[in-house]
Amino acid sequence: MIEMQDVKKTYPNGVTAISGIDVMIHAGEFVYVVGPSGAGKSTFIKMMYREEKPTNGKITINGVNLEKLKEKRVPHLRRDIGVVFQDFKLLTTLTVYENIAFALEVTGEHPRHIKKKVLDVLDLVQLKHKARHFPNELSGGEQQRVSIARSIVNNPAVVIADEPTGNLDPDTSWDIMNIFEEINNRGTTVVMATHNREIVNTMKKRVIAIEGGKIVRDQARGEYGLYD
Predict the structure, then answer these.
(1) Which of 15, 16, 46, 87 sits a CA distance of 20 to 30 A from 212?
(2) Quick check: pTM over 0.85?
(3) Using CA atoms, how far apart are residues 34 and 58, in angstroms rounded to an integer?
(4) Complete DSSP assignment for 3-21
(5) What is the mean pLDDT of residues 11-23?
(6) CA distance 3 to 191
(7) Domains of the chain
(8) What average pLDDT does the chain have?
(9) d(CA 69, CA 66)
(10) C-alpha pair distances (Å), 100 with each of 72, 96, 156, 181, 226
C-alpha cells in the first residue's frame, strides 16, 4: 500500500528532515509513527499525501509513483487518502453535514449519493444527531470525530493521521482511537503519528520509530519507547 525507497528530504534552508528511509506498509495494517519532537515524523507523514516532495528516492502509494505524478493528478490521489489533523481543520461556516458533504462535492459525487454516504459516516462516528450543528457548537472530541468522518467519506484506501488526539483529554482520546480501530477493522490502512505513549503501549500495533530523520526501530507489536 505504501512503499518508500531510499527517501531523503532536505528543505531549502538546508535542514535534512528525512534521510535514507526504506519502509513498506501493507494494505490493512495499523501503524504508529513515534519519535522525539523534531525527529522527522511530520515530514514522513506529509510525504505520503504529497504535501511534501522527497528530495531523493521513490514513494509509491496504492500503486501510484508519486515522483511521476503530475500536479493535476494530486487531487485524484488524495481521494484515496484520508487525512486527519490535530487541529481538525473544519470549515467554521458550514454545518457538520456540510463539512463532510463538501469532501464529496469537490470530487463530483452525484448529489443523490452524498446524503447516504454522509449519514453513514456520521453514524460510524456517532454524531448523526449533530448533523445540523456548526463546529463551534461542538466539543473538541466531537470536532475530531467530524474530521475523521470527512476523511473516510470517500472510502479511502489509506487514512493518515498526524497527532489526532494531541488536543484531547484521555477519555476522549480513547473514543477517537476506537473509531480508528473500527476503520482499520473494515480494511482501511491506518498510519498515525502520535506522542501518546499510553495508547501506543496498550493497543500493540506496528510501531515505526524515527530519530534524526532515520527509522531506528520497526516492530510488529511495538511499544512507544522513551520519548518526551
Answers:
(1) 87
(2) yes
(3) 22
(4) EEEEEEEE-TTS-EEEEEE
(5) 95
(6) 13
(7) 26-54+68-219 (3.40.50.300)
(8) 93
(9) 5
(10) 23, 7, 14, 20, 38
Pairing of strands 56-61, 64-65: antiparallel
What confidence tens digit (pLDDT) does each residue in 21-60 have? 999 999 999 999 999 988 999 999 999 988 999 999 999 9
| Angstrom distance (rounded) from CA 68 to CA 81 | 18
Question: Residues of 27-64 as b/e, b for ≥16 C-beta within 10 angstroms?
Answer: eebbbbbbbbeebbbbbbbbbbbbebebeebebbbeeb
CA distance 57 to 47: 11
State the virtual CA torsion across 207, 39, 83, 13 in degrees, nearest 10: -160
Reported residue count of the chain is: 228
Cell numbers given for 188: 482501511
Q: How far is residue 143 from each of residues 122, 150, 193, 217, measured CA to CA in Å? A: 12, 11, 19, 33
**CA 1 to CA 29: how far, in whole Å?**
9
CA gap 216, 121 in Å, rounded = 37
Alpha-carbon gap, residue 78 to 37, rounded angstroms:
27
Specify the amino acid at residue 210.
Answer: I
For 184, the grid coordinates are: 482499520
Order across the sheet with 189-193: list the strands: 81-85, 158-162, 189-193, 30-34, 206-211, 214-219
H-type alpha helices, the chain: 41-48, 74-79, 96-105, 111-124, 140-152, 170-185, 197-203
CA dihedral 57, 41, 178, 61 (to 10 degrees): -10
